[in-house]
Amino acid sequence: MLRNKVSFSPLTETERVRKLGQMSALPKAEFVMWTKGQTERHACEIVLYNPDNHLLKFKPIKSWKPDAGVYCINLELKGLNYFMKASVIIIEKEFYINTSVEFFKSERRSSFRLLTYPIYKVKAYIKTAEAKLAAENVVDFKTKVSQVNMFQQFLSVINPKDAQKRNEGYIPFRVTDLSATGMAIYVGEMEQELFQENQKFHRSIIHFENKEIEIDEMLVVFKAPYVQTDRNNLKVFKIGIKFINLNFNTDKLITSIINSKLRNYDEKNSFEDFI
After folding, report:
1. 213, 178 in Cβ contact below 8 A?
2. How far is CA 138 from CA 149, 164, 166, in A?
């Protein structure tokens, strides 16, 4: 699910205190902790952070109760992940983390892609003049009679959303991987003619788990034949697409979606290797 190696940057004590203060001020400040070498992750909630003694009071969200000892801890703030290896202290049955330790930041925005296929159903609706033209020119090969109405009815039954988007001039494509900087799609031999290197598309839409992400502008950066062919021996092409001038809110939404999918995945294992 991940691409590119994880890197961790240490923060100064001042930065650590500021970040923990920002996290503790959130309405619902949650984090994840686990014992190194174990796969089970435990969700917890920050109760209070004291920058003077560096103790962070917390409570487990579920029935699990931690023992005193050293844990790996992952906190998230504004789409970025922070890690530390710290001791849990139990005082009068209350749980505290001694945060006076090294505190690391892990960047995800530019270096991580979520491999979406076949695990997640993600589609890109790309607006082209050819899509509208194709929808208006469906002809039966035997009778040479227009079958537009029948074709539209068929689409509306098997996938109402695709039918609606085609009527609006969009062509749907399966997204194979996604990041805040771009995506990749696979297309057939006929569709690949719509994509040329350095070609721009405007007002495209990515649909991911009932969320619609509008991409104002994107650029085709490469087109390459894919080694694998489908079951009918038709050629398949991989199209690499870069998002251009992505606005802050869209960047934040994509990053948030990717982070939620990766929350309990390899980055935590990479931190274990790092420490």
Report:
1. no
2. 9, 16, 13
Q: Which residues of 197-212 are buried (b: 16+ CB within 10 A; e: fewer)?
A: eeeebeebbbbbeeee
Nearest to 173 by CA among 210, 207, 135: 207
Tell me which residue has tokens 């909630």. Answer: 45
What single-letter amino acid sits at 72? C
Determine contact, residues 88/96, Cβ cutoff 8 Å.
yes
User: Quick one: which of 251, 239, 254, 121 has its CA closest to 178?
Assistant: 254
For residues 171 and 132, give the distance between their C-alpha atoms in angstroms, rounded to a whole number.
9
Please give the single-letter amino acid code of residue 243: F
pTM of the model: 0.50
| Radius of gyration, alpha carbons of the chain | 24
Residue pLDDT tens, the chain, 275 long:
444 456 788 999 999 999 999 999 988 889 999 999 888 899 999 999 999 999 999 999 988 999 999 999 999 887 678 999 999 999 999 999 999 999 998 865 444 678 888 888 899 999 876 544 444 433 333 333 333 344 344 344 445 566 667 667 788 899 999 988 899 998 888 888 889 999 999 999 999 988 899 999 999 999 988 765 455 667 888 999 999 888 878 888 888 888 777 654 556 667 776 66
Identify whether the C-beta of residue 185 lies closer than 8 Å to the C-beta of residue 241: yes
- Cβ–Cβ under 8 Å, residues 237 and 225: yes
3-state helix, strand, coil in the chain (%, to 5): 25, 40, 35
Whether 106 contacts 83, CB under 8 Å: yes
Alpha helices by DSSP H, 184-265:
248-262
Structure tokens at 11: 């923060």
Contact by Cβ (8 Å): 95, 58? yes
